[in-house]
Amino acid sequence: MDTIKTTVTETAILTLKGKEYELPVITGSEGEVGIDITQLRNITGAITLDSGYANTGSCESAIAFIDGEKGILRYRGYPIEELATKSNFVEVCYLLIFGYLPTKPVLDNFKSKLSHHSLIHEDMKKFFEGFSPNAHPMGILSSMVNSLSAYYPESDYKADIELNMVRLLAKLKTIAAFSYKKSIGQPYIYPKDDLSFSADLLHMMFAVPSEPYEVP
Questions:
Q1: What's the mean pLDDT in 57-67?
Q2: What tens digit of pLDDT does each residue of 119-144 get?
Q3: Of 29, 45, 166, 167, which cross-links 4 as Cys (Cβ 3.0–4.6 Å)?
Q4: How many whole angstroms separate alpha carbon 207 and alpha carbon 186?
Q5: Any idea what the Cα angle at residue 55 is, between residues 50 and 60, rounded to 5°?
Q6: Cβ pair 28, 34 in contact under 8 A
């Protein structure tokens, strides 16, 4: 159970070794019910056994609601079906980060930031050269993302945190495209600021220096 908001509605009674314990019962924003066992070990000395975590809610989330059995996925309250048909990738990224869909001026500014932070440090190309040609692209991608912290250290300042979020999103498409080019032995294609996020990804993945490439 991943839920957006929960409220305590009642308590559940647990009887263990002749003693009764009250555990909070919470109700999520989608009407789902869960028993809060956060303090179970502290007050009883016992733990739960739930093989495969099939009966355990992983978290309280302000970002997503997931119910796999019913086929429900919502981001910030929006059904995934609606976002897939009415919003693009960059809009959904903004929604997940900031909690609301952007206006056109805000979205244009966000797109501009993503375009102008898509280059990766030139030294990072040496990392790609060290990977085996048979390395899985996802293995390369995860390694390269980890290396970003060496070039863009963490900061406690909010402005820098938001900037690093933009950097991560912007550079991910470049890293993904470079990983693909590495796997097929083709030269890397640099990002172009005049293309949209998706078009730029396609350009970096499928363009080659020897002939022009038209983004579909």
A1: 81
A2: 999 999 999 989 988 888 888 889 99
A3: 29
A4: 10
A5: 115
A6: yes
On whether the CB atoms of residues 27 and 6 are closer than 8 A, the answer is yes
**How many angstroms separate the CA atoms of 157 and 33, rounded?**
38
Q: What value does the mean pLDDT of the chain take?
A: 88
User: C-alpha angle 191/193/195, rounded to 5°?
Assistant: 90
User: 126-129: which pairs have CB atoms within 8 A and are 24 or more residues apart?
Assistant: 128/178, 128/179, 128/182, 128/188
Instruction: Determine if the pTM surpasses 0.70.
Output: yes
What is the Cα–Cα distance from 161 to 165, expressed in whole angstroms?
6
CA 64 to chain centre: 11
Tokens of 57: 């809610």
